[in-house]
Amino acid sequence: MRSIVIHPPHEFRVEDRPLDTMRPGQVTVAVKAGGICGSDMHYYRHGGFGTVRVREPMVLGHEVAGEVVAVAEGASGLNVGDRVAVNPSRPCRACRYCLEGLPNHCEAMRFYGSAMPWPHVQGAFRERLVCDAGQCEAAPGDVSFEELALCEPLSVVLHGVKRAGSLLQKRVLVTGSGPIGALAVAAARHFGAEEIVVTDVAPEPLAIARRLGTDRTIDVAAQPDDLAAYAAGKGSFDILFECSGNERAIRDALPALRPRGVVVQLGLAGNEVALPLNLVVAKELALLGSFRFHEEFALAAKLIGQRRLDLSPLLTLTYPVEEAVAAFEAAGDRRTAMKVHIAFA
Amino acid sequence: MRSIVIHPPHEFRVEDRPLDTMRPGQVTVAVKAGGICGSDMHYYRHGGFGTVRVREPMVLGHEVAGEVVAVAEGASGLNVGDRVAVNPSRPCRACRYCLEGLPNHCEAMRFYGSAMPWPHVQGAFRERLVCDAGQCEAAPGDVSFEELALCEPLSVVLHGVKRAGSLLQKRVLVTGSGPIGALAVAAARHFGAEEIVVTDVAPEPLAIARRLGTDRTIDVAAQPDDLAAYAAGKGSFDILFECSGNERAIRDALPALRPRGVVVQLGLAGNEVALPLNLVVAKELALLGSFRFHEEFALAAKLIGQRRLDLSPLLTLTYPVEEAVAAFEAAGDRRTAMKVHIAFA
Amino acid sequence: MRSIVIHPPHEFRVEDRPLDTMRPGQVTVAVKAGGICGSDMHYYRHGGFGTVRVREPMVLGHEVAGEVVAVAEGASGLNVGDRVAVNPSRPCRACRYCLEGLPNHCEAMRFYGSAMPWPHVQGAFRERLVCDAGQCEAAPGDVSFEELALCEPLSVVLHGVKRAGSLLQKRVLVTGSGPIGALAVAAARHFGAEEIVVTDVAPEPLAIARRLGTDRTIDVAAQPDDLAAYAAGKGSFDILFECSGNERAIRDALPALRPRGVVVQLGLAGNEVALPLNLVVAKELALLGSFRFHEEFALAAKLIGQRRLDLSPLLTLTYPVEEAVAAFEAAGDRRTAMKVHIAFA
Amino acid sequence: MRSIVIHPPHEFRVEDRPLDTMRPGQVTVAVKAGGICGSDMHYYRHGGFGTVRVREPMVLGHEVAGEVVAVAEGASGLNVGDRVAVNPSRPCRACRYCLEGLPNHCEAMRFYGSAMPWPHVQGAFRERLVCDAGQCEAAPGDVSFEELALCEPLSVVLHGVKRAGSLLQKRVLVTGSGPIGALAVAAARHFGAEEIVVTDVAPEPLAIARRLGTDRTIDVAAQPDDLAAYAAGKGSFDILFECSGNERAIRDALPALRPRGVVVQLGLAGNEVALPLNLVVAKELALLGSFRFHEEFALAAKLIGQRRLDLSPLLTLTYPVEEAVAAFEAAGDRRTAMKVHIAFA
Question: Phi and psi for A318 in degrees, rounded to 5?
Fold first, then answer.
């Protein structure tokens, strides 16, 4: 079974791996589409991020959808042939954080394709994936596997929107129009934001954000004053979904927030980000970290599966697994690719 | 009437100023005690902070208490001889933020002794202060004027505690044991925090925090590992009252917070504070700015006036107005002075 | 100028009334459509409700839209010919509740067509209405006046949705499919509720709710077991928008809520409603009253004016002012009329 | 081992029962004091409440403290001779509500002395109790067993205070000065309520509330106008802890709440309580049910064990187990007994 594996320090291979054994309550999924995420790119390019390093061969990938090809006993509700998105979040359901209703902070989380724990948690970029039935969300046939594979990044965004609270009568700014930022635009629209403005430093991602429903796009490289104008008075926006992880983007966005404005930090940045803390104090901003998701995955599958959200503008390129390297290279160029998928046989 | 005035760029003078005219609804207060605050120190030393500069002569001071010596008609509820704390917060009560219940963000705030607006708002370090009756909170005679003058910094802290929400079953860390940090200890105890730990880099302020009810003090200069131990697992504290404004203190404290921990940022820092933003994301911390106060002043006066809070450990030194320079110099030495007051005639 | 007036005890007249004087900052609106609300019906039938009684002649009506026909100086942003919805909520902006950001609880509220204060506040069912420019929300020409007149009841519902907080991943039950219930369906959809079920005792209103986007309708008179099924386990719904004011509807709905479920009570009921309080305790339900609105009116006008919400299914009948009695009679029959409007010349 | 057992329909017996087997991780506690609760009284008098009926012999009791007399392996942290309060709340830690952080709504809760599940969950009024080490909270020797047995009702109250949120600058009304109401007074004081008023229809319980720190008591049977005065304007109190379960008490208290006031319903009432729902709507009150507790038990033990709360005024009478009937009769007379305990050998 072909899998996309990163070997330490960061050697990229498409190689054969044995199929896992299916236990009761599990299914085998023929993975059809896998979306390349920023963390996959970090493993590909650098073998990790921060203090996290690949120390043993690890299958990459956590954004996958596919077709059920085998069902063990006890895997209720699923049938061979079902098209499913697979939730990569596997909390232990027994630690203190799981029991507090915070499974994304599980002390023994086994999230696909993560080198944080030891041994590493193997990922889902492989032709056959054995997983628990409960990880699978089924969807009807008219939704492509690439769209279904967007359930994972959409879940990240839904979790962030939940952190923000109600968007009713809220003016929303989104910084960074990559996949997470673009999904934040779509989600903010879906949950009724009154106004949505999105910024980026490149025109191509902003064009996609427009198709996903933003009211306005600002190319802050070309027109920085357009954002600065929102800082007039004591600022304009109620909520900022920070999706760039870029220090300058954050610093330029904060003045555009009104007093008691809320920042939901989704973008990962370096470990040292210089922030205007006095502005946070004087405006009484609330800077809220948002990390992964869990129960939101089921909602994401419903929104995509029932076409309540049309996320097709996000889909740009799909490469066969044989061309995985090309896929990763393409995923690194924001001007040509929003979300790149790998197609398995 | 002698007043403590700063002249641009930052010349410090004790000089005579004319008495303001008393209008209906107002009273004249003979100021008895004025506490020196960090912002007073900035005007004294640097003529301002950040982009705020003294551009015309300005009376300093916003932490004062005194005795009512004259009462205009319509100043209901007050009598000559009343001992009062004076609320320096004067929002306009008509702008959008006042009407949203956020008077501390008033667009036309006239906070005593502030060079932020133009013309500057004159302060309260003067022998006679004419103010609205509604700014005065009366207290019985057995509370000293120095204690009453603590109503202002206590209000700042009460506002921060309100930002944090309930302290029930919460473990609290306070970084920085200056006047704000020490008051945060007293307030956290009063509002029922389960456990309180306070840090500083000097032993003297920590000794005062112990008298105010903290469970434990950590001298992070001498024993940095003691704080680091709280970072074990995913961290320990639910709430951090950050009262130092010191970059290193903030950075060292964040790992000691548990997932979903709340930081109430009370300390003012430079405009560039390097923060571990990825930690904020991964732990889903909430960093909440807290700025000034308004309605909390009445509560502060009740807590101090009814001796529900005994803040006398905070009082270290009082200088007569003639020795104002000595008072400001003393206020700048954290090892000998916690809160320094100036006594007016 | 013809007006619809109720005389004590509850005599209904269409009569001429003098035009009010226009002051600076005001406009004169030619009222084009006025929606009949439940409280209008109470004045019409009973001369009041509870302890509130019409004690002097009072113009009815608070759901109106029309065309600006005169503009006084200082009425910025409005021009003759503008099509506007008029906000009937006029808080004082100076009392303690206004200053707490709770203008709907204003101690001196002057809400159109209300016999609660003395003298009564005259209403808006008249050919010409003089009002503050700030009460008017303009809309483009392709939205009918009847739709614009729905801004008021939509504001009531938006306020209730705000009380409920975010609808993300929430299952919503709406009891009572009258105008408020039907608008709650539309709003719950707009703000992203995961699932919406609406109940009523008549099929006609439920048919309209279906056109507004509900997932399921239950005729609880015909199929009571369908609602009861949701009580299985510990219940199903996260949020109940109670829009019937009917004791039995409330009592039958509570078991269908899950633990920590939230009831937003929008429907007005008698003063004595027998509730299963032990169920509220055992499930830790939250029963939240929701009363009027204020700032939500601007949002309602934007949602309707920009056609983000299509509320046309609510519009059933329009009568000319000469047939006002017929309009009120029609408005009392839920099977034939959802929202009845009166057209002024 | 003598136990206090209720036999269907409601025959009360003190009888011998076999000792349970101790498993790994468990301890045996010699029960020293057991507090009689309202639900015990219902079983004693009526064999149940509402639809809950004793259908098999059931040991009563869930408020107990005692001494550890045997420790199985794996019962870490406990030693023979430890004085402990025993948490009667035993959620399954695996159902959906446990995993949402709502263990008090556990679908398989095994709360001591409850006839709700089948088979019934046997209670703790017995000479020897085998329980999990994790249920035991140790306390130092200078706290009486009767006081320790108050951990359970205090936990109920702490849970209710948590539901209310921060008490900072809040005016609190407590209706019903029985054990729960009196504990609510003590807790409201501990968590910093600005003002506390408590009502009852008998002077004796109010005298105890005064010793626990209330600012004012109102005997509403003798002086009903004293409570009514708080309804002036739009009402006075921010929070009502409703601890009587009495319809009239609730109805008389609601007008004394200010707009957006919060009712925490702790008292159990009949299944039909006639409430002024229109008042809930017009004032936008929030009526929050509060049911049992879980993690609050550890905090209760700390507050009592460290004498942060002095609850000794609550202790009125202790009877030896041989006089259990007298104890239950005494517990039914509010004028002579606040909290009655049974002493086991």
Answer: -130, 130
